[in-house]
Amino acid sequence: MRTATIHPRTLGYLGRALSLEYSAVQQYMTQAGLADAWGLKDAADRFRREVVEELQHAERLVKRMLGLGVAPNASQLRPAGVARNLVDLLLQDQALEAEIVALYHEATEFSRRIGDVENAAFFEGLLREEQHHAGEIDAWLKSLGVAPDGGRDERAYF
């Protein structure tokens, strides 16, 4: 069992990451259902694609944990946020993705500091993917008339 050589804080990062990824799955799945109910088929389809991406991240985390000899444990699943319009859903996503990016950045930096090259590379790969995803949400918000600071114009409410 490899847990003796893995820093406990690294295991904590893996568990927190798994919780956030499963929370993202739940959030995007809920948002797909809301978008469907609002007649926003393209948005619903996009949220469903996000579900698949986040499930893939969760699967990678589970495999990593099993490979390290620990049982996967997502201990704090967050409730999915609901809203009255697409923009407010995306603002929730923006906040969740920012938290995920921050966690992967912190985990990458910690792993580097302790000389854990393997886990640093693992977290860095997830970090890059989540940064890209956060950028896509920002671009989607911008296309709906939401400024980078969260300010909105009248187009944003549909």
Would you mind describing this structure in some detail?
Belongs to the bacterioferritin family. There is one protein chain. By secondary structure, the chain is mainly alpha-helical. It contains four helices and no strands. The chain has one domain: Ferritin, core subunit, four-helix bundle (Ferritin), CATH 1.20.1260. 28% of the residues are buried. 71% of the residues lie in helices and 0% in strands. The C terminus is likely disordered.
Short descriptors:
mainly alpha, 71% helix, 4 helices, 158 residues, disordered C terminus, Ferritin
Concise structural overview:
Helices cover 71% and strands 0% of the residues. It has 158 residues and is an all-alpha fold.
Q: What pattern of helices and strands is seen along the backbone?
A: HHHH
Q: Which range best describes the helical content: under 10%, 10-25%, 25-40%, 40-55%, 55-70% or over 70%?
A: over 70%
Tell me the fraction of residues in β-strands, as a range: under 5%
CATH class: Mainly Alpha
Note the topology.
Blueprint (H helix, E strand, L loop, with lengths): L7 H30 L3 H27 L18 H28 L3 H27 L15
Helix pairs in contact: 1-2, 1-3, 3-4
